[in-house]
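for the writeup, i need someone to sanity check this before i put it in the appendix. the sequnce is what the collaborator sent (i think, or maybe the updated version? ugh). structure was predicted straight from it, no edits. if anything looks off just tell me and ill rerun, i have time this weekend
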Amino acid sequence: MSRLERDPQVEALVAAYRADLEDAGMFAENEVTSPARSFLLRVGLQGWSSMTLEQQLAIPGQDRRLVTWLIVTGRLRPTPEYLVASKLRVGQVAARVHRDFHQRFLAVAAELGFDQKSAGLQWWAVARVAAIVGVSPGRLTKAQLDTGREQLIAATRQLHPDHPIRARPLTTRLHSAEATLFHAGVIDSPPRKRHWDKSADRAREWASVPPRLRATFEGYIEQMRLSLRPATMVRVESVLREFAGWLTTQAPEVTAVVDLRRAHIERYKRHLAERASVRGGRLSNIGLAEHLGTLRVCLERLSEWDGDDAPTRVLMFAGDIPRRDEPLPRFIDDAAAAKLLRAAREHPDPFTRLAVEFLARTGLRKGEFLDLTVDSVVQIGSAYWLHVPLGKLRTDRYIPLHPQLKDMLDEWIANRPAGLREPWLFIERGRRIGKQRVQDAVSDAARVAGIGRVTPHQLRHTLATQAINRGMSLEAIAALLGHKSMRMTMVYAKIANRTVADEYFKVSEKVEALYDAPRELPATAEGAEMRKLRSEMHRRMLGNGYCARPVGLDCHFESSANRAPTSRPRTSSDPRSSVSATTPPTKAKSADRRSSTVCCYDSTRKAHDRSPSTPARVRGRHQPRTGLDPAFPDPAALARRRARPEGARQLAAHIQGLLPPRRAMARRSGDRRTDPGALLPAPGRRDRPRARPPA
């Protein structure tokens, strides 16, 4: 065939192919262009597209290079199966064809923290997706990226059915490439973690439910989506779908909500208690409560809305919901917390150091911690405050920021890539750090510290417990943790109740004193019965039960002695009182003045008031009398004494030598009587105090 007879389209493709090879600095002489021209004239673009997969894979190597260039430039649309099975070097050819974008892609990947090898693998995956959708890598959209990914994954599973994880390298590289494309400005949607799409399975389960029952439950779900969070609606949809499926198989007579009866609810409760959970075993108490609670709310709402398909009576009651356990918050003690912080500060990972220190000092939840933005730190006056965004309870707040945390945040922001298109503070390799990354950071630090398993939420409980133990008010703790009601904060007061602790330690000291006390207890430790017995013993030792000592002087038995006299003084008929006035007074010994055992001292008694035959009493001694009383040598006189009305009591006191003095007895008003049977005689000269005679 002469030059004039050649196809213009073929020559244009060959010229473009040769120009790309020359720009790349590769060999582009006749030995390369001639086989390319021959393939295009012999097979052509339409002919290659009409080949089977086996025929396409059988093309020789020289023609494969041209096919790769045609695919990269978008002139051929290969099937996903061919790209997976042929192992073409699409990435290398795309790097030569799209040189400028390739260099930009690598620069962004390096800025995000990817190494050169990882960036090259990302480019390989992006080039394959771009080849499938027929566009250049720099013009990909999010929808095209997702479409190409799904097609490549499906082709890989089709060609390798025995190796279900064969597509994992592709998904991993596309997962990282999505972040690079977003921050390079190619796609507009930020990268998010992808979950396995189970929408087809859910639709198949709903399709088996009776139409009217399905329509009622689906209408309820759509209404609740307007007021509840997406995560909550996932649970609501799952509970109602399971209940509708159970009714379809176990109660086929129920075709609508209006057909439900109490017996169906009771059977379903037994089914839930016996069925296995997703993680194995039976449903927990909390799982049963959440499942039945969601179903009860649905039935109550349908009754309140009064629709066409609503329960005819109340089907579920509060007693159907199991009572949830109310355990105290789990926290770590001060020693374990100190070990954890030391291990975190020495950890080589900067995010681990920041996460553990931040959660332990601020008490943030994982979601609140990850939702912080680069402008969350504000300065109010001379102090720095942290703006905590809307979290679990849909409230935001400001909390004081420790200077050490401020320095750590400044260091983190300084190392943050400058070209990021998202405002989140914690971004790693172009993606938002997930909750599992925070859990791994805390667990790794706890493992190094040797304190067992620790969760991020335990650090929140630990901070609250430490604060309340050190005197922080409940109002301040509630504001720090973002509680809506004090009931949430009072849980921490139960962990360390200072009132209970003070009362316990006060009692413990007494109990320990009882255990550690010597065998002979001190006098101050005697009980009430012992004091009563001792008082009674003292009264018996005093004889008449009263102390005759003046009020001005101290008495060892003052606690048990009453100073009210009951004895009668000696009269002139008393033999012991018949002592001459000239008898010199007997000088009392000092021991008589310091009586402690028997309080018989009388400072007002004269020498003539004491019989000469009555010996002086020694302190602490009770001298018993033998035989008859010396004061009554005559048995007849003793009998007459006993015969007197008041003589029995006074006689007993007289025998013991404990008769009270006259002057002490005369202090009571109305005691001076003149009748013969009176305790005191009429006042006379004898009762007047006389001067003591000189020695």
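Residues 557-632, 661-683 have pLDDT under 50 and may be disordered. The chain has 30 helices and five strands.
thx in advance!!
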